[in-house]
Amino acid sequence: MLEFKSYFRVSTFFLNFNTSTVCRWLKETEKENREPKLLQYIRKLEETGLYEKLLELLLYKVKEKGEERYLPLAKVYHALQLELEMNGISVGYHRFRQIVKAIVVGVLGKNWEEFAHKRRSRGRAQRISFGAVARPKEVLEIDLTGYEFEGKNYSLILGFDLYTGFLFPPFIVENKEKGGVGSYNKAFNSMEVALYLIDVFKKAGIPKVVKCDNEKILKSQLIKEGLSRLGVRLSNTYPYRPNQKIIEVVIKEFKSFMRLHRRSAESIEELAQLAVESYNRNHHRFKHLSEKVIPAELFKGYSRKADETLISTAFVETVERTLKDGQIQIDNLIYQINYPKKKEKVVVKRLITNLKEVMVYQKSSGEFIGVAKLFSKPPVEVETTVEFKQEKLRSKRIDRRKKKLEEEHARLSYMEKPAVSLEEIADGEPQISISIEELESLNPEQERTEESQPRGLTLEDL
User: How much is the pLDDT for 205?
Assistant: First the structure.
């Protein structure tokens, strides 16, 4: 060490340079000879076997709504973060993005701007902000969306706690309506929305406010009256105000997690469950929000709890019918009650969770008449009004499909019938057979005028 210091001092003396200049030269020489930091990370990825997995996630794409969608870089980092740390590669998202850029440009030879643009959310440039939005407590925000999986279209109802960012598991139905994923609102009715709210309220408690957009099935009379009975206020957002609907951001984030887990899921239910768990484990930091909130994993439900029976009986279907000879018909189901009058205008109320009985009131006075019991038999394994509606829609779809197939079969059968050509008739070899009974049925004594004779070849010519 002493020899190096003495040599260093002698060198600076004879070269007539100060010590700091010589130290800077030595550091720059050492830096030039050292391997670049990003190249070190890439080499370490190759040694640990994560390089191939990173390329697979970067190039993985799915087809949704007729467009090819790639995984966002943040989701790729989220999928590899734990494995990177286990292999001694502790990098943040900014450094990870630099590593990906070096691989895309240096190894794959692609344009970085084009590569990053494909992973941005659609409509990002057209997004308009009206300032930060408040996130009050005890508010449940719900919305509808569609998703395509394994060649089938599905519709989902999603619930989201506004303050904590906790995402509830969705309600899923297969969408067989025309329009595919885009017609997700047609696949649901208000009863299914009420059924989803009942499930959320039973598990998490009753919030103070339910917030939604102006979709008809979300603000129907069934939903309004049911929430009013539970003491919940229904709040509708203004149209074209994206900052008032945080759940729109949540749905995009949720779908990106669905793309991440798509290869490992065997069903849409399993895929949705994996995406919800990943979303709730992730820290939600929306840039357009200024208010600090608690993490989603600390959400323990709403403060107000209620009995499950009260929650189930809150949502009631109300219809007007005519009571004839003690019978009422609703959705091809007949209910029977003992009533002296032969004909009466009544108001019928039926719980969406109970198909077997309805409550009957006089329309004129509002007086309670009694409870009408189900007289006709519903389809097998159908207990609730929602299940009956779904079974009815399914039967209609089957009937429409059956009718369409019968028409197609008749058309194909008509096209497959052999036709007799004029050439065959002219050659004297017509491909037509006439039985003796058919010849005897003809009347040879019938006289025809020249004007009434048919044009073309006659039976005698044949």
Answer: 92
